[in-house]
């Protein structure tokens, strides 16, 4: 069986050098390290602004670039190994970071003043190099962010993080408060608590946790359907980003099961 193209960088004409012997390609290259230099950048299936967004690369995340062509970089994210195309202007040299954004979203400002010019919006899990303190603000490359946005995560479980996204819009391939999908909600929440996670729901189902029975559910259990995932808030309620309401909602698992044509494929406990 050929490697999964979502997490292995290979095409007919080009592939990552470490895949030599596993896949066929005209040319194999080592790739070069880079980092996202904007708050969030779409990673697309094809080098086109109209192509489907599969996920996002956040500020400070490192990637391996295998090709730059016509304003697009074909790359692989270091954190979850996802492969796709990102606009070149969203990338720069590999960054040195020492702090992570814990706010849902925080403004990057031109000066340490709430009324100063907005330069970008930085999402949860964006990585920065925090500099000197100026009042309530910390200097970071490109401007200033409020120190509160870098406060350490104190949540005892990742569900507490996920619950902060209640009402956030559903956006396919998204993983920020500006819009996210079902697996983006789970991955983002786990990452905020220092837990690594694959990107897509089928990958999560294979890689995360141990199977549990639907009659023994508790807070933090992941519920999987083909192409969908949600997280239990307790033994009865499910939090999930969904296209039915086009937002992150909390509802009874029974209600979700009753309207879903596909049965639950598994329940997993981390």
State the main characteristics.
270 residues, mainly beta, six-stranded antiparallel beta sheet, five-stranded antiparallel beta sheet, 24 strands, 11% helix
Uncertain runs: none
Shape field:
globular
Into which percentage range does the β-strand content fall?
A: 35-45%
Alpha plus pi helix count: 4
As laid out across the biggest beta sheet, the strand order is 19-24-20-21-22-23
Helix and strand run? EEEEEEEEEEEEEEEEHEEHHEEEEEHE
Distance between the termini: 28 Å
Most strands sheet: 6 strands, antiparallel
The percent range for helix content is: 10-25%
How would you describe what is shown here?
The protein has 270 residues and is mainly β. The chain has helices spanning 158-163, 182-192, 201-207, 253-259, and strands at residues 14-16, 27-29, 32-36, 40-44, 53-58, 62-69, 72-77, 83-87, 91-92, 99-100, 105-109, 118-123, 127-128, 133-134, 137-140, 143-146, 175-176, 179-180, 210-211, 222-225, 228-232, 237-242, 247-252, 266-269. Strands 19-24-20-21-22-23 form a 6-stranded antiparallel beta sheet.
List the topology elements.
Blueprint: E1 14-16, E2 27-29, E3 32-36, E4 40-44, E5 53-58, E6 62-69, E7 72-77, E8 83-87, E9 91-92, E10 99-100, E11 105-109, E12 118-123, E13 127-128, E14 133-134, E15 137-140, E16 143-146, H1 158-163, E17 175-176, E18 179-180, H2 182-192, H3 201-207, E19 210-211, E20 222-225, E21 228-232, E22 237-242, E23 247-252, H4 253-259, E24 266-269
Task: Please provide a brief summary of the model.
The chain is mainly β and 270 residues long. The protein is built from four helices and 24 strands.
């Amino acid at each position: 069986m050929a490697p999964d193209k979502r997490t292995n960088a290979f095409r007919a004409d080009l592939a990552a050098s470490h895949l030599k012997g596993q896949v066929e390609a005209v040319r194999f290259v080592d790739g070069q390290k880079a980092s996202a230099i904007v708050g969030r950048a779409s990673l697309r299936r094809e080098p086109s602004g109209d192509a489907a967004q599969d996920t996002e690369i956040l500020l400070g995340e490192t990637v391996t670039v295998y090709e730059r062509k016509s304003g697009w970089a074909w790359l692989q994210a270091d954190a979850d190994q996802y492969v796709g195309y990102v606009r070149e202007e969203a990338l720069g040299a590999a960054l040195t970071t020492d702090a992570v954004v814990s706010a849902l979203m925080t403004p990057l400002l031109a000066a340490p003043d709430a009324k100063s010019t907005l330069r970008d919006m930085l999402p949860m899990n964006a990585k920065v190099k925090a500099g000197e303190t100026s009042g309530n603000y910390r200097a970071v490359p490109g401007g200033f962010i409020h120190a509160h946005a870098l406060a350490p995560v104190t949540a005892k479980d990742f569900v507490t993080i996920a619950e902060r996204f209640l009402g956030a819009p559903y956006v396919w391939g998204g993983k920020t408060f500006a819009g996210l999908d079902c697996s983006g909600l789970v991955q983002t929440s786990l990452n905020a608590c220092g837990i690594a996670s694959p990107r897509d729901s089928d990958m999560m189902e294979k890689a995360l946790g141990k199977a549990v029975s639907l009659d023994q559910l508790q807070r933090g259990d992941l519920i999987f359907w083909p192409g969908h995932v949600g997280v239990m808030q307790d033994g009865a309620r499910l939090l999930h980003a969904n296209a039915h309401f086009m937002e992150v909602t909390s509802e009874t698992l029974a209600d979700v099961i009753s309207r879903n044509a596909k049965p639950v494929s598994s329940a997993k406990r981390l």
